[in-house]
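Quick one: structure for this chain?
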Amino acid sequence: MDLATLWFWIVAFLFVGYFVLDGFDFGVGMSLPFLGRDETDRRQIINTIGPVWDLNETWVIVAGASLFAAFPEWYATLFSGFYLALLLILAALIGRGVSFEYRHQRPESEWKAWFDRLIVIGSALPALLWGVAFANIVQGVPLDEGHNYTGTFFDLVNPYALLGGVTTLLLFFTHGVTFVALKTDGDLRVRAQRLARRAGIITIVIAATFLLWTGLAFGTTAFWILAAVAAVALIAAWVANARGAEGWSFAFMVVTIAAAVFGLFAALFPAVMPASNDPANSLTIANASSSEYTLTVMSWTALIFLPLILLYQGWTYWVFRKRITRASIEAAVHS
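Got it. Here's what it folds into:
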């Protein structure tokens, strides 16, 4: 395996990490209107991701930086062609981050309600648009001979891409609700398990439709294997949640998202951005990658620092592994 191919899969791994980790963040944010019956519920829900949400978001920064360094042509075409969609994602992430920090700064319920709405929007919009973006990358977009995107924003809003967006939206929602069940107690935990069961049924149907469409149109052997793993894991996650084993359910959701994202990269390989109008204009691993020297330096850097990042993040989750109880929220309010 040459270094360009290696970095294609490293970029895939980084996006898997982002979708797995920030994915349940998005799901937790989207769950607020469905699970937050009172202020204590809402604080309990938000506190499940309070110590980790900003750390989870750094994965997209690392993924974007790696994409820029390893595949500058891919990065340039993607960020110029998908500019408006990525700008909306950025604005949503900023609004969500500000809301986490500011909602508790004043006691008025209306103040909190405004920031709660921003949390929901700032979680749902990226969850939808990331799926739309990756579906468009897999199916291809119109490119000229200079690898410039020649379509419009509305060309990206097509049935296949919208189905991809709805799939990621539902996957992240179910992932997040399962995390709420894993990290809370009492009535909120029970309601989260119930919501995960209901959402899981819809997610299974939509995700299966998207994976089948992808496989029939763009599938490779590797894609079909990974899609089968994702499908089995998603069903296993639903069964585990139905039996009250939210820990196993969450683990299976991690496998589902990881296998699905790796599957999309497998369907894309060896292209990085196919040209839908003329295959000769497509960006591939070969014509989009940086020089051998750049990739060598990046490889040594990744070898040193990536394990340290993984160890640090694992330690962070271990430190904050306990459930967020309703009693602890109520005690904090009255302290």
